[in-house]
Amino acid sequence: MTAAPAALATPLPLSQEDIDTFDRQGFIRLKDVLDPDVLREREPEITNKVFELNTVDAPMEERSTTQKAFLQVGNLWRHCQAARDLVFSPRLARIAAELLQVDSVRLYADQALYKEPSGGITPWHADQYYWPLSSDRTCTVWIPLQDTPLDMGPLSFAVGSHRFEFGRDLKISDESERALQEALDEAQFPVDEEPYELGDVSFHMGWTFHRAGRNVGTEARRVMTVIYMDANIRVAPLARPEQQNDLDMLMPGAKTGEIPDTPLNPVLYPNPADHEQ
Predict the structure, then answer these.
(1) 3-state percent helix, strand, coil for the chain, nearest multiple of 5
(2) Which superkingdom, per the lineage (predicted)?
């Protein structure tokens, strides 16, 4: 595999309309952000490493709801150069900073999320339930590694739900799917679900409620994600046990009230080369 190309570093201009859309909706879908050839070249290495590091091997019918939803491997950038190329992409990090309207962003974590054929739904949830962070200046870029039609289970977003406070105490589960579906319907939040072509990405805020349907296709839905946070965000007091787990694994050594400037949380924009570990 060749070195990370300039296409992952070249800035992508955003319009004020893009920034306003993200602020209003809590997410934005962007077309043609990444070169499909760059993703095709890196997908096999990422996929091989995901299946090597995956620890879920039970038959689908014996798995929990979240295990049926996806195979999840975090901090893949530490094990795989192809994943690192995406995680450290200045192009993506700059987009995140501009959408969040902050001067700089650092890495919270990456996650590969592979929904196997016959994989179950991803229940309604908000990611920031798990994150012990002091503000909402967080977002995730969702990077499919293949075309993702509706039958493979692309993300669905509840439009504007990043300002909806019901359900923020619900972890991803059958209960979050039921309770949030009911609450979002009652509050009349529109649901946005669209297929992704290879090279398309979406960014969503930490408190934006989202879900995904089953993968009824014949191949795995292969996705890389990168979670960004304002580089000046601080570790918040822990609200639940799951946040202790994230603190220990993803921000080791960071203390409540401090900026999580750890080796696992480098600044990605601006000047990412100055912060490579």
Answers:
(1) 35, 25, 40
(2) Bacteria
Cα–Cα distance, 55 to 51 (Å, whole number): 8
CB 155 within 8 A of CB 142: yes
Please name which of 264, 263, 266, 257 lies closest in space to residue 238, comparing C-alpha atoms.
257
* Domain covering 13-251 in this structure, CATH number: 2.60.120.620
Burial 46-57 (b: 16+ CB within 10 A, else e): bbebbeeeeeee
Residue 242: CB atoms within 10 Å = 14
* Nearest Cα residue to 10 out of 35, 31, 46: 35
Q: What are the sequence ranges of the domains in the chain?
A: 13-251
In one-letter notation, the amino acid at residue 71 is: L
CA angle 217/222/225 to nearest 5° reads 140
CA–CA distance from 88 to each of 52, 180, 263, 266 (Å)?
A: 22, 34, 14, 9
Average pLDDT score over residue span 100-124: 97
Tens digits of residue pLDDT in 47-66: 999 999 998 989 998 999 99
Structure-token match 């190309």, residue found? 5
